[in-house]
Amino acid sequence: MMHPETTVLEAQGLVFGHSPLPAPPLFDRLSFLLPAGVTWLGGGEGSGKTTLLRLLAGALPAGAVQGQLLLPGVSLAQNPSAYRRQVAWLDPRDGARDGQTAREILAAMPAHHAGWNRQALQSHIAGLSLAPHLDKTLTMMSSGTRRKVLIAAALAASAPLTLLDQPFMALDRPSIDYLLGLLASAARTSGRAWVVADYEAPAGVALSKAIELPV
Q1: Which residues contact 87 (CB under 8 A, 6 or more apart)?
Q2: In whole angstroms, what is the distance from residue 211 CA to residue 41 CA?
Q3: How many domains does the chain have?
Q4: CA 81, 87, 88, 91 torsion: positive or negative?
Q5: Domain-located, residue 206
């Protein structure tokens, strides 16, 4: 059961560790609730911010993770495909899309996210200055532009849970300001949760929750 009413995601007893074992697990019986709004996931280098995002996205091998992840009406363990469709997560470190153009990446998203918002996508393309880059592959882009394509895709998915990993890295100032404005607006909405993993909390954004991982 999800609780309280504002909870979007419930994590129960998460255990995960990198090989080789028997090294201590990175997460040992980690439990928390994610409310609607913006959550900041902080921690120093090597604390596991990206790994936790991948875990919340259902992107780690099922056998490597213990515990439960629950979104409204769906459990990752019981229905992984339905769970993943409710999470917007494009890993900036994943090279699987490197040979695709921005237009191809964005065109593939509606098949995976029922809430895909084409009107919002056009706003994100304008706000992040992506129009000149839509027909370039990710390998042809600067690291900042590459990251902006993945951010635009995640934002337009309009998923119950949106995960952003160091979203401001390598972005130009206008794009940073645009994204901060979106997050400030997201902080005032209900029904959706946003997790921003970064060394510092996003400036000017009213947080619903902060999670700081120990090194």
Answers
A1: 56, 57, 58, 71, 159, 160, 161, 162, 163
A2: 5
A3: 1
A4: negative
A5: yes
Asked whether residue 69 is assigned to any structural domain, the reply reads yes
Tell me how far apart the alpha carbons of residues 81 and 102 are, in angstroms, rounded to a whole number: 24
Relative orientation angle of helices 173-186 and 143-156, to the nearest 10 degrees? 20
Tell me, yes or no, whether 83 lies in a domain. yes
Token pair for residue 210? 């902060």
Which residues constitute the domain of residue 49? 7-213
Residue 63 located in a structural domain = yes
17's tokens: 């560790």
Outline where DSSP puts E strands in 22-168.
27-35, 37-43, 66-71, 74-75, 87-88, 161-165
* Count of beta carbons in the 10 Å neighbourhood of residue 207: 15
The owner of tokens 């990198």 is 18
Residues 78-134 have pLDDT tens digits of 999 999 999 999 999 999 999 999 999 999 999 999 999 999 999 999 999 999 999
Tokens at residue 60, please? 């780690």
Domain of 37: which CATH number? 3.40.50.300
What's the pLDDT score for residue 28? 93
User: Which pLDDT band, with edges at 50, 70 and 90, does 19 fall under?
Assistant: low
